[in-house]
Amino acid sequence: MMDKSEQERLAALDAVTDWDLGPEPVAPGPLLPVPRGGAGAAVDGGALVVLSAAVSEGHRRDVLHSVLLAQLVANKKYDRHADAGNWYRSYGETLERVGWVIKEHEGLTRYIPRKFPYRLGPAILELLARISDAPSMERVTTALKVLTALPEEDPAAELFEKESHAERAGNFQVAAVDETDGLVVVRLARFRFRVEDEASEIGRLLRTEFYADAAFFRGSQILHLNDEVYGPLRDGIAAKLGARADALIVPVGGLIH
């Protein structure tokens, strides 16, 4: 008789074939640009993923693939920006099914800034600082600065803008990833917002100034990767993503790798 863990692995394998991720891009982008040889960052759909030099190449791919998979599954079920509550529920369920174990969880709560207007960078860093060490914060700070400064036509900047917000609503994530003795840890900051003033326009998200009419929510998680669960799913997830991984994972330039 199979134990519970084996049953869960088989159920997850079956789910890989059932997940609807939408159509693949007609013309794939470059080969999967996993940052190599040191610290690096990539825009992964509507997420910024920041990787320490300690994360192995294989685990970098695992993180980027599973983060993208969770977004795409949720995107097909719910409107990412209009129904963020259900979207995040689906997103979390997918991560858990493929082997991510939630060690700490802080639900989405409204952010009250000290003054108006405000930008999102400090709100992101303040949240991550609660669950991250100093080196991780340095990497995330650098990655946010680089992403903010990229020209509009840069592929990473274009992708982040396209996926992270629509009209006056948004839903995005920032992940700090590290590895110690083979254990992969993701410190995940999750965000959603809506601007009520119909006259307001959001330009480049990280450069936009937000006022009192904006409802901005944030929460965090610490997740560990269970290789025993993810391992049997690895090839199936890569095949399921197909050209989507090439088109929707783009390195953030200008970082020291």
Average pLDDT, to the nearest integer?
91
Note the gap between the termini. Answer: 48 Å
Q: Multimeric state of these chains?
A: single chain
Question: In which range does the helix fraction lie?
Answer: 40-55%
Shape: globular
Q: Which structural class should the secondary elements be placed in?
A: alpha+beta
Cα-atom radius of gyration: 18 Å
In short:
With 257 residues, the protein is α+β, with helices and mostly antiparallel strands. The chain has eight helices and eight strands.
What are its keywords?
single chain, 257 residues, alpha+beta, eight-stranded mixed sheet, 8 helices
Q: In words, what does this structure look like?
A:
The protein has 257 residues and is α+β, with helices and mostly antiparallel strands. It has helices spanning 4-18, 57-77, 84-97, 120-129, 134-149, 155-164, 227-241, 243-248; strands spanning 40-44, 47-51, 100-110, 165-166, 169-180, 183-195, 214-225, 249-251. The longest helix has 21 residues, at 57-77. The protein is globular and about 55 Å long. The chain starts with a helix and ends in a 6-residue tail after the last strand.
